[in-house]
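Subject: sequence -> structure tokens, single chain

Hey, anyone have a minute? Need the predicted structure for the following. Not urgent.
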Amino acid sequence: MNRYIRIKTLFIAFIIICLSGCGGGGSEQSPTTDNQSQQTNQANNNNSNNPSDDNNIDPESNNDDLSDNDDADQTPTLSDTTFSSQAKVSRFLQQATFGPTPTLLSELENKSASEWYLSQLKVSPSLILPSVEAQAPSDPEEDFNLFYIEQTSFAFWRNSIGAPDQLRQRAAFALSEILVVSNGGGEVLTDVPEAVAAYQDILINNAFGNYRTLLERVTYSPAMGHYLTYMGSEKGNDETGRMPDENYARELLQLFTLGVVALNKDGSEQLDSKGNTIELYDNSDITGLARVFTGLNLNEDDPEEFLGKRFSVPMAVFSDSHSEKEKSFLGHTIAAGTDAQTSITQALDLIFDHQNLAPFVTKQLIQRLITSNPSPDYVQRVVTAFESGNFTLPDGREVGANQRGDLSATFAAILFDQEARDPNQQTGGKIREPILRFTQWARAFELTNITPEFVPQLWDTSASADLAQHPYRSPSVFNFFRPGYKAPGSVTAANGLVSPELQITNASSIPGYINFMTYFITGQQQEADLEELKEEFDEIGTDLNFDQALLSFKPNYDRLLSVANDPTALIDQLNLLLCANQLSDQTQQSIKQVIGSIGEDEEDGFLDRVHLSILMVMSSPDYLVQK
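Reply:
Had a minute. Here:
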């Protein structure tokens, strides 16, 4: 029997066993009451000063506003037990990186998580734009090819799976799902990969910097300017009725900074005397703010310059196109006649200092890394770190530049919070995003050749038949899923809980994910028709390295094969590496019941058993819900 068919048949048997064992349906935890005490790392020095503004920003340069507290000048004063077991290391790395590796589990056990965090802040950024520029054709209009425009995807897969700056890469990906730019549609962002590559690098370079600085660099980004249509926005004309483009002004407030209703420091909605939510602004505010972003367009210092190059540097200001009218929004007014750069600086300062920004942004970052339903106390503790720009790590050392909006302090507060570290205090965790499931598999089994260019399946994974998600390719500015999404008819929704990732989970994406993972887990990419792939490469004038293609994304299962004769030992390894020892007894028994029927093959030993075990674990509810 064909190996693929055999594994699929046994996998179906596993599903049947699971369903019969739980009465035909799964169960979900009810929300728990969280009476956690306030952590002792409440930061002081609530300094709201903004970092210096620089509108001539090189998106390739590393401009992090890292902590003024030099690690070399600080001595640990407390014992950090965050990594006191390999299971705890595994769980932390599932939240803070694109997935743990067996090597890291061994190296970090009983080491200081505080030290690991501080060391990650210092690792040089792994960027995207250099990969794109290295593949840019000499004449893009004549030599346009898919291999070139997919370089943003190739570089993302390489960095997320193999780059040493894992914390930075993971933080940047979380930020990308708030400050959304997508090359999933629209000719320019699809066909000029430098645009999205430069934008990715803005997020990577500033992942540990200041959110105010990040907002400015995003605002001047050509990718964002084109995506939200304010690139080339002209001042209004009373005679013709022309109005400034309002798209960015609206999404800047609604999605990137404040939301739409007033929030308390703990992320809960403020209510008026009648019990209604309080709207922050109306369309007149959007109209006033839209005037701020007029006059921005591609830098034309050299109009003959390759378009991709002009999309990789900040937009320039064209004063003649900028509105000279006063700009009123959120109860503030920028005076008439104020120039574009000053208007943008004042507008971003006003928005950044708004009380809604910290709870609105930090709650979403918690959702992306830790749990879909953080308690109000958890949100408020992270807001404190964001606003003070300081956080005390478990070993007593401090991180952050003591400026409002410091992201190095914010991410530390998210990851080291008591609610993040104790799974028993969470209200259900979060669904693992499909992208993160794939990268976790790739890192868990230490791929020997991360060359996505040789695997067409990775060129676009956005279809439901694949992962239903592709990096930087969301269907809209609202990301792949909304932070407040409640799955209709679900137990979580009935309990008032949100489950954002379920918005891309449906009858097509579930089998699509299983088929996609089966393809990689069983090594079918090594058995692909290389002649057909060679024809694709020939069409774009690129040589196909057969040796590399045969080894591309080849997993290392040696550790599993060494214990595969013992189903219990095999599942124990997978439970630790993939689930931080959170597989239920029922799930473990169900998997063992199926894999125990797979005997040793004369040629491949217990390889089929290993393949099926990985697929079963990574398709189980215990794995799909990260706790």
